[in-house]
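Onboarding guide, step 5: your first structure request.
Type a short instruction followed by the sequence, for example:

Predict the 3D structure of this protein.
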Amino acid sequence: MAGSHPVPNSSHWGAFTATEDGDRLRIEPHPLDPDPSPLLANLTDAVHHRARVARPAVRRGWLERGPGADRARGSDEFVEVDWATALDLLAGELSRVRAEHGNAAIYGGSYGWASAGRFHHAQSQLHRFLNCFGGFTRSVNTYSHGASAVVLPHILGAADAAQALFGGTSWPVIAEHTELLVAFGGLRTSNTWVAPGGRTRHTVGGHLGAALERGMRVASFSPLRDDLPTEAGGEWLPLVPGTDVAAMLALCWVLDAEGLADRAFLRRYTVGAEHFLAYLRGELDGRPKDPEWAEALCGVAADRLRALARRMASSRTLVHVSWSLQRTEHGEQPVWAGIALAAMLGQLGLPGGGFGHGYGSMADVGGGQTPYSRPGLAQGHNPVTSFIPVARVSDMLLHPGEPFDYNGGRQPYPHVRLVYWTGGNPFHHHQDLRRLREAFTRPDTVVVHEPYWTAAARHADIVLPATTTVERDDLGVGRGDSHLLAMKRVRAPFGEARDDYEIFVGLAERLGIADAFTEGRDPARWLAHLYGQWRAGLTAQGLELPDFDRFWAAGEVALPGHRHDRVLLAEFRADPARHPLGTPSGRVELYSATVAGFGYPDCPGYPRWLEPHDWLGGPDARRYGLHLIANQPAARLHSQLDMGAHSQSSKVAGREPVRLHPEDAEARGIRAGQVVRVFNDRGSCLAGAVLSEHVRRGVVQLSTGAWFDPSSELATCAHGNPNVLTADRGTSRLAQGCTGQHALVDVEPITAPVPPIRAYDPPRFTAAPVLRESGILSG
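The system replies with structure tokens like these:
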């Protein structure tokens, strides 16, 4: 416990020390961190916030009427109960669902970042528990890069696809060698404050600065000027949102038409180039993909595209595609087209050249690597085969038994009766929240572990209060991080909050699976065991680490074998026969016969321009003439600690800021600082207007993460959650990824009285004695 002495801990946005100061924490970043994240300020006053869940709570309607579909879910009162009652009720319901419907009727819906710790990792804890119980329906892939995770293995093979997603060429290599960085989706450095598992040292800004000082130039294709940091001083190409593929194809066309393409590279290292080139030249559809064709779609002048293509061919060029571009309809295409462009340049596998993915999306992309895995809790074996792509949760709950396509397969959605969610908030991640609210009325029971009364907790039947990262001991380390950190408990748990592990132990004891789940260990023994297992593996590789007691006393250990010299696809380029890719051809597949064979009209076997539903060139733009960019927030990680000091400092009139161009604002009678209504057919939200010329005309930007607040009749969300506006459709039949980045909207000023924000208020409670008198609760 902290007392008056700083205690080490870690978060997804960086390592820190904390000291208790009454109801607040005093936070200091790790002394080795050259560029600490300002998001640490969100920790200071969150532990005692009124939004904390203090005691186990059960929805009144579930107690009165029993399990079953219920439209009151999300608006009902709750009853606070003791732990024994809550665990008895939940154990009984798990047993009923398994007995009546089988384990496939349980959805292990944990998706989210939760703690940076490796033991108190909510998803691992839930999956381990459910596997001990007989298994569950699972989700695959992520909201962050669901399209890329599916299409990249078809292009590069599974192993190199993983490298492209989670590592790529190291930043020091880029700083030394890259002459021209062409960034589709920009290079938003605020995203590089965060990484799963945390980050001891934030170094992206330093490496970018070194590259710019050496003379690297940057070109940013984005509707937002500040998707590129001001210090980069790069060229801004403000294209129409969703048209990056058109610009990429035009650049490829110039390289081909002007003899600048590396044809020897295409012959030796790729397959299907002739098919892609036939499409590029217009031989398949009668329309060459030249810069004039692209200008009509993307709004970037043809002459600028031609000039840029020539510069790319004469420079060591890194083609970078942000994760944001594949979070749209047909999101597979910009990833594939970006690789095709890099292949046309012939620079894949060269230091500082080729293809990059996600550098402005996460701190650990390009941040180094270690030749071993991180410590982690084994989840066991799941005998249940049913699954869904993670962004298809509403479809699953609304349409059980209906078939869905995914990556060449076709199977039915399982009929889920019990949703068990820990460590995440689907009302942040998911799209079309009206539809998600309807979907959450369908199961028999929804269970949530939560430190806070988020929208997910409000839409649950059983809510169990969970500790936060500063209320327990753990091990912290991110992918490719430089240190393993001792995450020591700073303060006692709030109210009656328990660790996820302790909650599952209580359930496991009631269900007769405690021995399998705990293996006889309490959390302290688990930490020593996980560290010891991991250390033994490193020792076998000749890498020395202190024993657990010395590590824990020191508070951290530097990781041996840490490297910053990776070049994506370097071995393949050096010897493609000895180091083939894991594709059917062993080469980069610019045309995939496998994908073509699936017969998906929304994802053919090569990169091409496919018109999305929501874009300014489509018919719906006549009704909704502004294109919304729902990007990641700069003031928090997703929706985490939205009530924190740093997040609150970014609000406008207490609401999430929405940025729009001054001319678009003037045309609608909107003033800076005014509360406005952002709307389309799917819903509406209130937000605070910010006028900025850094936003392209016809575009508005509203970040995700404002806690969903359906308390006002003026709007679907009174707080500014853009997912009341985004469409709940998959990227394509191939990946079924999330498409939450873009939507067509309009904006109008609010003249009616502005409602208060209710997002952080606890729900209404009914006293337990009232239910005991009626016989609903015993004891």
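Each response can be followed by summary notes, for example: The longest helix spans residues 83-101.
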